[in-house]
Design a protein that fits this description.
CATH class of chain A: Alpha Beta
Low-confidence stretches of chain A: none
Organism (chains A, B): Methylobacterium fujisawaense
Structural class of chain A: alpha+beta
Strand order of the largest sheet of chain A: 10-1-2-11-12
Strand content of chain A: 25-35%
Order of helices and strands of chain A: EEEEEEHHEEEEHHEEH
Number of helices of chain A: 5
GO molecular function, one term (chains A, B): peptidase activity
Number of domains of chain A: 1
Number of strands of chain A: 12
CATH architecture of chain A: 4-Layer Sandwich
Largest interface: A-B, 50 and 50 residues
CATH superfamily of chain A: Aminohydrolase, N-terminal nucleophile (Ntn) domain
Keywords (chains A, B): Hydrolase, Protease, Proteasome
Helix content of chain A: 25-40%
Mean pLDDT of chain A: 92
Distance between the termini of chain A: 47 Å
Oligomer: homodimer
Protein name (chains A, B): Proteasome-type protease
C-alpha cells in the first residue's frame, strides 16, 4: 500500500509520502514515491505516486526522457519543459495514456488492473502554485481552497485529522505537522504503509525546496510526535464526560 | 453507507450503529440497523447490519420467523431458540445462504452484488459473552481480547481512535464513549453515515439491556462530545512542537 498527502495553503505547499511497496505481504521493499523535478529559480515540481510500481516507474521515466507527441510530427516533451502547471499535468496524463497503450495487452492477458494515481504539485515562474490529483485515465482534479489537501493511496485513516485541522490559512509548518499526524494514523492502522517517510515543503514564489528530508525509523522528532499524539488522544477522550444514558427503557 | 461498531470488554458489550441508508446520493432514508433479540433473564442478542437493505431485511425476517433446516426433515429454527451464541451465529450464516439461494438468479440478472455483513453479539444463559462478524458467505470470525472490537461498513475513518483507545480492560461506559467518538469521525468524513445513532449496552451476565437508546440530531450529550473532541484534537496538534526540518539539502 501507499499513503501520500499534499497540502496547499496560503504560504505554500507540503507533500508527504511513505516508501513501502509490497507485492503481497511477504514481499515488502522500500521505494521512493515522492519525486522532484526542479530548476531552482525557475520551477519546482513534485510528483507522488501510488498504484502499480511498474506503471508509476514507466510514467516517471517517460516524463524524464520525453513523452511522445500525440501527432506524428509533434516532438517528445519532458516534464521540466512544460510552460505551466496545467500543461504539465496534461503532459503527465498523456504519459499515463501512453504507458497504458503499451502495457494494455499484457496487463489484460495477466488479468492485472491498470492502476495508478499521482499527486502533482508545484509552481512555474510567476504562475500560480497548484496541486493536482491525476487518475489512471489521465484525467485530473485540482485542489481547492475550501478543502486544501489531496490524498492518494490508503487515504481514509488519515483523513479525519486533515478534515478537522487543515484550512487554507493554516501556517506552512503546521500543515507539515498535521500531514505527519495524518501519516502516523495511517501507519498505525495499515501495516502496508511505513517508514521511512519523504517530506518536501515549498514556500510560495520561492521556486526552490525549503525542506527535502527523509524521516527514518527512530528519528527523534517523528517519534516524539507519535508519542505526543497518542497521549493527547488518550487524554482527549478521557476528558469527555461519560455517556449519561441509563438503564434500558424496554 | 453504514457504520456499526461492537466493543466487547471485560465488563460487557457495547454496540453502536448509524441509521442512514442510501440508494444513490439522492435517495437517503433512515432505517434501524441495530436489532435486538432478547428474552430478559435468559438471553440478550444484538444484530447490526450493513450491505444491501433487501438482503439484511430478508435475513432478519427469516431469523424471526424461522430459518429452514438444511435437511428436509429438519424443522425451521428461530434465532431466539439457538442454544449457544456459536450456534446462533451458525444459524445466521445459514439464513444468509438461504437468502442467497433465493435471490441469486435475480441478483445476477440485474448485475447486483450479493453483499451483507453483520455484527452479532450477546450472551445466552451461563454461556460466554460473544461478538461475531458474519460475512456474505455466511462464515464468521469472533472478536478477540487483543483487539476487542469489530466494525462493519465504512470502518476506516473510525478505526484509528479504536486502535488507540480500546483495550479489553476498558470500562464499559468508556467503551461506549470511544465508540461514539469513532462514529463521529466517520460521520464527519463520510456523509453517507449519519444521525440518528442507535446504541446498546449490556453488562456481562446481566442478560438484559442496560442501555437501549437512540441519539437524535441535536441531542446535548452527543453534540457536546463532538465539540469537545474537535477542540481536543485541535489543541492536541497545536501542542506538538513544529517540525525542526530546515532548508533543503539540495
Amino acid at each position: 500500500m501507499t499513503y501520500c498527502v499534499g497540502v496547499l495553503v496560503e504560504e505554500g505547499l507540503v507533500m508527504v509520502a511513505d516508501t513501502r511497496t509490497n507485492a503481497g505481504l511477504d514481499d515488502i521493499s522500500t521505494y521512493r514515491k515522492l519525486h522532484h523535478f526542479n530548476v531552482p529559480g525557475e520551477r519546482v515540481m513534485m510528483l507522488a505516486s501510488a498504484g502499480n510500481l511498474s506503471i508509476t516507474q514507466s510514467v516517471l521515466s517517460m516524463l524524464q526522457e520525453g513523452v511522445p507527441g500525440e501527432e506524428d510530427d509533434e516532438p517528445p516533451q519532458k516534464l521540466v519543459e512544460a510552460p505551466t502547471m496545467f500543461q504539465a499535468a496534461q503532459l503527465i496524463g498523456r504519459a499515463i495514456r501512453r504507458v497504458r497503450a503499451i502495457e494494455k495487452d499484457g496487463f489484460e492477458a495477466a488479468n492485472i488492473r491498470f492502476s495508478i494515481s499521482l499527486l502533482f504539485g508545484g509552481q512555474i515562474g510567476n504562475g500560480e502554485m497548484r496541486l493536482y490529483l491525476i487518475y489512471s485515465a489521465g484525467n485530473f482534479i485540482e485542489c481547492s481552497t475550501d478543502a486544501p489537501f489531496l490524498q492518494i493511496g490508503e487515504h481514509k485513516y488519515g483523513k479525519p485529522i486533515l478534515d478537522r485541522a487543515v484550512r487554507y490559512t493554516t501556517e506552512l509548518y503546521d500543515a507539515l505537522k498535521v500531514s505527519l499526524v495524518s501519516m502516523d494514523s495511517t501507519m498505525r492502522s495499515n501495516l502496508g504503509v511505513g517508514l521511512p517517510i519523504d517530506i518536501a515543503l515549498v514556500r510560495r514564489n520561492a521556486l526552490t525546496l525549503e525542506v527535502n528530508h527523509r524521516i527514518e525509523a527512530g528519528e527523534g522528532y517523528f517519534h516524539d510526535l507519535r508519542e505526543r499524539w497518542s497521549a493527547a488522544l488518550r487524554a482527549a477522550h478521557r476528558a469527555i464526560p461519560r455517556p449519561p444514558y441509563g438503564p434500558a427503557d424496554k
